[in-house]
Design brief:
Blueprint (H helix, E strand, L loop, with lengths): L4 E10 L2 E7 L4 E5 L6 H11 L15 E9 L4 H10 L7 E9 L3 E5 L2 E3 L1 H8 L3 E4 L1 H7 L2 H11 L3 H33 L1 H14 L5 H28 L6 H14 L7 H28 L4 H20 L4 H15 L1 H50 L6 E8 L11 E8 L7 E2 H4 L2 H21 L9 E5 L7 H17 L1 E5 L3 H5 L3 E10 L2 E8 L2 H12 L6 H16 L1 H5 L1
Parallel strand pairs: 3-13, 3-14, 8-12, 12-13
Antiparallel strand pairs: 1-2, 1-4, 4-5, 5-6, 6-7, 9-10, 10-11, 14-15
Helix pairs in contact: 2-3, 6-13, 7-12, 8-10, 8-11, 9-10, 13-15, 18-19
Length: about 575
């Protein structure tokens, strides 16, 4: 499988870089230049496009935005492929372009032209690039990072993640148990109050929709009084004497007496009799309906009392009938200690089981770390001795906590110790290491972890590109020669890019890029140049410190240094 390569870095309006496109390739690339030329800007730009913190202060003066893009070509790591698939981003033809745009009011990240979050950008870039800078040195001073280094060397990434999952599950169970126990204690303090509320609500026994039903019934009963009065008046108007019924009857009898005088009068008599009959029937129906009206004063009082009780409870316990019913249920549930006790018993069993799994996992991690520790100690000691510390020794103190549940990374604590010189006392790395010594230890740790990954025959855990920001800080002379060969060897397995001030390191590179600073139109800008063979010799001579009148000697020295650092025998030493 062809490992992915960082093939292009494109920068626009970033710091004093107006526009630059840097072609990169396999092997070791050295980036050099005088102090202040802008070498560190490249590292800052790379850190930004790989998901680092953005600041508008990095935008070139006079411009609104800055843009940095990197291109990777080749088969991507599985982790990056999975994330691309989750984001719905096409891998294309094996090319991944990551781009970051920053402005005063703009922060955008892209992968193959698709807008993504900064966190997603960082996750995509993590398996592709390992950026070693002063931040990495600072992390090495933190004992919390030491255990992570040992786990990387021991290939415990997967086991460490599984243990973390076990710990998260255990912590979730414990938090639930603690919350229930707290609830139980609090419930005991307010038990009397809860019982009072429960008794009051149970006696009230409010049913869903009951208030509306009571109010409707009350309205009907109160309305029956008005109905009765109106119906009585209607009955009187239809009465036998002065009502419609009586009038119609008298009219019918009068018409009967004169019916023989005209042939049309009998028909009128019949109609008057019909009116009398209709009035009689209507009066009967009204009287019957009036008798069915509910005018029970006792029921009226009872319903009014029920309405008042419901309204008082609603105002007291929630403001609505629904809230009242929910309160009744919640109080009953809170008083149901049997349910809480049952769940606590279940949690106790689950915690016991999870604790056993967690302790077994922590023990396995400790055993693996203990087995790997001597190998990392020997590997780091060997490299720092090659890097100009012949009497140095490196040790890892691995201590296991007892008497408590394992943490998210197990029971272990690791601390790095260093003895830099013969006759000196050993001390914690964070307390005794100088800046140069810390640089050497960091390189040694990186070398040891990289060797361990490649020794396993699987390159998936190794970053495709390693970027070193002045890894040679504090080094010089023969130590620089060793460092150059070391980085050249890294470049055989992984793409390596190193910003360096040492000619010994630059001479070991397969590709050499020079950063220069110039002024034009009253503006300062940095220029990146890929050097030819002849230009490399000149740049190395400058780095060696050419003195007036010794130019030819310095150039010859530069050529010898190039030949020496490229020598297969040297490279493998």
């Amino acid at each position: 499988m062809v490992r992915p390569l960082l093939t292009t870095l494109h920068i626009t309006n970033f710091a004093i870089l107006e526009s630059a496109e840097l072609p990169l390739g396999p092997g070791l690339t050295a980036i050099t230049g005088e102090t202040g030329a802008g070498k560190s800007i490249l590292i800052d730009a790379l850190a930004l496009v790989l998901g680092g913190r953005a600041s508008e202060k990095a935008i070139r003066a006079g411009h609104e935005t800055a843009e940095i893009a990197v291109q990777f070509d080749g088969a991507l790591p599985v982790a990056s492929k999975v994330l691309l698939a989750e984001l719905g981003i096409d891998e294309g033809d094996g090319t991944l372009i990551l781009r970051r745009v920053i402005g005063k009011s703009v922060r955008r990240s892209y992968a193959n032209g698709r807008l993504i979050t900064t966190a997603q950008l960082r996750a995509l870039a993590a398996p592709l690039c390992d950026l070693s800078s002063q931040h990495a040195q600072h992390r090495l001073l933190d004992p919390a990072h030491h255990l992570e280094v040992l786990d990387r060397f021991a290939h415990l990434g997967a086991a460490r993640a599984r243990h973390g999952d076990l710990h998260a599950a255990w912590r979730g169970l414990k938090q639930e148990r603690d919350a229930l126990e707290t609830q139980q204690r609090a419930a005991a303090d307010r038990l009397d109050y809860l019982r009072f509320v429960h008794k009051e609500l149970a006696e009230l026994d409010c049913k869903p929709g009951e208030l509306a039903a009571v109010q409707t019934r009350l309205q009907r009963i109160k309305a029956s009084e008005s109905l009765a009065k109106t119906l009585g008046e209607a009955g009187e108007l239809l009465g036998e004497d002065e009502g419609a019924r009586g009038s119609a009857g008298r009219a019918a009898r009068g018409l009967a007496r004169i019916a023989g005088l005209d042939e049309k009068l009998p028909a009128l008599q019949v109609r008057a009799e019909e009116i009398e009959t209709l009035a009689s029937e209507l009066a009967f129906d009204i009287a019957h309906f009036a008798r069915t009206l509910d005018r029970d004063d006792r029921q009226l009082a009872s319903l009014a009392e029920r309405q008042d009780a419901l309204l008082r409870a609603i105002r007291k316990y929630g403001g609505s009938e629904e809230a009242l019913l929910e309160r009744a249920q919640s109080v009953a549930a809170e008083l149901d200690t049997d349910t809480v006790d049952l769940r606590l018993a279940e949690l106790a069993k689950a915690l016991q089981k999870q604790s056993l799994l967690l302790r077994e996992s922590a023990a396995a991690l400790h055993e693996a770390r203990s087995a790997a520790r001597p190998g990392l100690e020997a590997a780091v000691t060997d490299v720092v001795r090659q890097l100009g510390m012949p009497a140095a020794s490196f040790r890892i103190a691995l201590e296991s906590r007892t008497g408590s549940e394992p943490g998210p990374f197990g029971n272990d604590e690791a601390t790095f110790y260093l003895r830099a010189n013969k006759g000196e006392n050993e001390g914690k790395l964070a307390e005794v290491a100088s800046g140069g010594e810390l640089s050497r230890v960091l390189l040694a740790v990186q070398r040891a972890c990289s060797d361990a990954v490649f020794a396993e025959g699987s390159h998936e855990d190794a970053a495709a590109s390693c970027i070193y920001d002045e890894a040679d800080a504090g080094l010089s002379g023969s130590t620089g020669l060793v460092l150059g060969r070391f980085l050249r060897e890294v470049g055989r397995r992984q793409q390596a890019i190193c910003i360096s001030h040492l000619p010994q390191v630059a001479a070991a590179a397969d590709r050499h890029i020079r950063v220069t600073k110039s002024e034009s139109g009253g503006r300062t800008r940095s220029v990146l140049s890929v050097l030819s063979e002849a230009e490399r010799v000149t740049e190395l001579a400058r780095m060696l410190g050419t003195v007036d009148g010794e130019g030819d000697t310095a150039l010859a020295h530069a050529r010898r240094l190039l030949a020496e650092q490229r020598s297969p025998e040297r490279a493998g030493s």
